[in-house]
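*** Protein under study ***
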Amino acid sequence: MTGDSLNTIKQAEKKALQQIENAKKTSEKTILDAKKQAEKEKEKIIKNTKRKTEDQLKKAQEEANKETVKIKQDAKKEISKIKKESEKNIPSAVDLIIKEIEKGE
Protein backbone atom coordinates (compact mmCIF):
# COMPACT_ATOMS: atom_id res chain seq x y z
CA MET A 1 0.00 0.00 0.00
CA THR A 2 1.11 3.41 -0.69
CA GLY A 3 1.16 6.27 1.77
CA ASP A 4 -1.73 7.99 -0.01
CA SER A 5 -3.94 4.92 0.24
CA LEU A 6 -3.15 4.48 3.90
CA ASN A 7 -3.81 8.17 4.52
CA THR A 8 -7.15 7.94 2.66
CA ILE A 9 -8.19 4.92 4.76
CA LYS A 10 -7.28 6.73 7.99
CA GLN A 11 -9.25 9.80 6.92
CA ALA A 12 -12.25 7.64 6.01
CA GLU A 13 -11.97 5.85 9.34
CA LYS A 14 -11.74 9.18 11.17
CA LYS A 15 -14.73 10.52 9.24
CA ALA A 16 -16.77 7.38 10.04
CA LEU A 17 -15.96 7.68 13.74
CA GLN A 18 -16.93 11.34 13.65
CA GLN A 19 -20.22 10.47 11.95
CA ILE A 20 -20.91 7.81 14.59
CA GLU A 21 -20.18 10.35 17.34
CA ASN A 22 -22.44 12.92 15.67
CA ALA A 23 -25.24 10.36 15.29
CA LYS A 24 -24.86 9.43 18.97
CA LYS A 25 -25.07 13.10 20.03
CA THR A 26 -28.08 13.65 17.77
CA SER A 27 -29.88 10.62 19.19
CA GLU A 28 -29.12 11.72 22.76
CA LYS A 29 -30.47 15.19 22.00
CA THR A 30 -33.58 13.68 20.39
CA ILE A 31 -34.17 11.49 23.45
CA LEU A 32 -33.66 14.45 25.80
CA ASP A 33 -36.05 16.61 23.76
CA ALA A 34 -38.62 13.81 23.77
CA LYS A 35 -38.32 13.49 27.55
CA LYS A 36 -38.81 17.24 27.97
CA GLN A 37 -41.84 17.18 25.68
CA ALA A 38 -43.29 14.19 27.54
CA GLU A 39 -42.82 16.03 30.85
CA LYS A 40 -44.59 19.09 29.45
CA GLU A 41 -47.48 16.92 28.24
CA LYS A 42 -47.65 15.17 31.60
CA GLU A 43 -47.86 18.52 33.42
CA LYS A 44 -50.52 19.70 30.99
CA ILE A 45 -52.58 16.54 31.56
CA ILE A 46 -52.23 16.86 35.33
CA LYS A 47 -53.26 20.52 35.21
CA ASN A 48 -56.29 19.79 33.03
CA THR A 49 -57.32 16.84 35.19
CA LYS A 50 -57.01 18.94 38.35
CA ARG A 51 -59.09 21.73 36.78
CA LYS A 52 -61.78 19.27 35.67
CA THR A 53 -61.84 17.68 39.12
CA GLU A 54 -62.17 21.08 40.79
CA ASP A 55 -64.97 22.02 38.37
CA GLN A 56 -66.82 18.77 39.11
CA LEU A 57 -66.40 19.28 42.85
CA LYS A 58 -67.69 22.85 42.60
CA LYS A 59 -70.68 21.67 40.58
CA ALA A 60 -71.43 18.91 43.09
CA GLN A 61 -71.21 21.41 45.97
CA GLU A 62 -73.57 23.81 44.19
CA GLU A 63 -76.06 21.00 43.56
CA ALA A 64 -75.81 19.89 47.19
CA ASN A 65 -76.41 23.47 48.35
CA LYS A 66 -79.49 23.75 46.12
CA GLU A 67 -80.80 20.45 47.47
CA THR A 68 -80.12 21.60 51.05
CA VAL A 69 -82.09 24.80 50.47
CA LYS A 70 -84.99 22.78 49.03
CA ILE A 71 -84.96 20.38 51.98
CA LYS A 72 -84.95 23.31 54.43
CA GLN A 73 -87.86 24.95 52.61
CA ASP A 74 -89.83 21.69 52.64
CA ALA A 75 -89.08 21.25 56.36
CA LYS A 76 -90.28 24.81 57.12
CA LYS A 77 -93.50 24.13 55.23
CA GLU A 78 -94.04 20.90 57.16
CA ILE A 79 -93.33 22.65 60.49
CA SER A 80 -95.80 25.38 59.60
CA LYS A 81 -98.40 22.79 58.67
CA ILE A 82 -97.90 20.91 61.94
CA LYS A 83 -98.17 24.17 63.94
CA LYS A 84 -101.43 25.08 62.22
CA GLU A 85 -102.86 21.62 62.90
CA SER A 86 -101.78 21.70 66.53
CA GLU A 87 -103.22 25.21 67.02
CA LYS A 88 -106.61 23.87 65.92
CA ASN A 89 -106.42 21.22 68.62
CA ILE A 90 -105.39 23.53 71.47
CA PRO A 91 -108.94 24.49 72.55
CA SER A 92 -110.12 20.87 72.67
CA ALA A 93 -106.94 19.85 74.50
CA VAL A 94 -107.45 22.62 77.05
CA ASP A 95 -111.08 21.55 77.49
CA LEU A 96 -109.98 17.96 77.99
CA ILE A 97 -107.38 18.99 80.59
CA ILE A 98 -109.95 21.15 82.42
CA LYS A 99 -112.43 18.25 82.47
CA GLU A 100 -109.78 15.96 83.90
CA ILE A 101 -108.88 18.52 86.54
CA GLU A 102 -112.55 18.99 87.45
CA LYS A 103 -113.00 15.23 87.73
CA GLY A 104 -110.09 15.04 90.10
CA GLU A 105 -111.44 17.65 92.46
Remarks:
- The chain has one domain: 1-105.
- The chain is about 95% helix and 0% strand.
- The chain has a mean pLDDT of 93.
- Helices lie at 3-104.
